[in-house]
């Protein structure tokens, strides 16, 4: 795999072309000394399970992984907590209002955007919503549907971290820890 900052050829501070690999996650300018670290972007993911043990999934409207299944979520905005971000993303993609977001776990992911691989840290939340009957596909979601947890197929989900998260959800239901 290439360096995560490979496409960044010039120092963002002084414009020098001597912006060189410093270590596996950073580049440093030989002229002004500025060092830039390619830390992962924060993203959030919602597990919303209704009273029938069905998981709310969306179909991706855009690349990457256009047309595959996904979970509501997205990038956390600057100045926003992960909890605020997951609530906002659920509202934007499904129209549902989250009444409680409980952090579960995180997984690293690689997300191709505009020809660049973005390293992300995907934070998974169990989200309770006010009314599960008012779901509408909006924003980046082409469709929104409820799938019984026993019928979920992780390979139908286009992003690696989401597949892994769905596998964990399925395992938790098999072990009797419904809702994780």
Describe this structure in words.
The protein is an alpha+beta fold and 180 residues long. 16% of the residues lie in helices and 38% in strands. It contains two helices and ten strands. The protein has a four-stranded mixed beta sheet, sandwiched between helices. It has a three-stranded antiparallel beta sheet with strand order 1-2-3, with no helix packed on it. It has a three-stranded antiparallel beta sheet with strand order 6-5-10, with no helix packed on it. The longest helix is centred in the last third of the chain and has 15 residues, at 160-174. The radius of gyration is 19 Å and the shape is elongated. The two termini are 34 Å apart.
What keyword list fits this structure?
single chain, 180 residues, alpha+beta, 4-stranded mixed β-sheet, 3-stranded antiparallel β-sheet, 10 strands, elongated
Mean pLDDT: 94
First CA to last CA: what distance? 34 Å
- How many E strands? 10
How would you sum up the major sheet? 4 strands, mixed
Helix content: 10-25%
Low-confidence stretches: none
Content-based structural category: alpha+beta
> Number of helix segments?
2
- Beta percentage is 35-45%
Q: Please trace the helix and strand order, writing H or E for each element.
A: EEEEEEEHEEEH
Give a short synopsis of this structure.
This protein has 180 residues and is of the alpha+beta class. Helix content is 16%, strand content 38%. A hairpin with a 5-residue loop joins strand 2 and strand 3.
């Amino acid at each position: 795999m290439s360096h995560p900052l490979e496409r960044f050829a010039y120092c963002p501070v002084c414009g020098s072309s001597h912006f060189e690999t410093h270590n596996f996650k950073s580049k440093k300018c030989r002229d002004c000394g500025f060092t830039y670290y390619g830390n992962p972007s924060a993203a959030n993911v919602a597990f919303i399970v209704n009273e029938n043990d069905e998981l709310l999934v969306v179909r991706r409207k855009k690349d990457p992984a256009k047309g595959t299944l996904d979970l509501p979520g997205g990038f956390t905005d600057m100045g926003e907590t992960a909890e605020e971000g997951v609530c906002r993303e659920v509202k934007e993609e499904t129209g549902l209002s989250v009444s409680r977001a409980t952090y579960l776990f995180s997984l690293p992911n690689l997300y191709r955007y505009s020809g660049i691989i973005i390293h992300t840290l995907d934070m998974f939340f169990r989200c309770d919503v006010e009314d599960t009957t008012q779901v509408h596909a909006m924003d980046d979601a082409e469709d929104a549907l409820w799938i019984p947890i026993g019928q979920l197929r992780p390979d139908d989900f286009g992003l690696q971290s989401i597949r892994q998260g769905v596998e964990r959800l399925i395992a938790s239901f098999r072990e009797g820890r419904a809702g994780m």
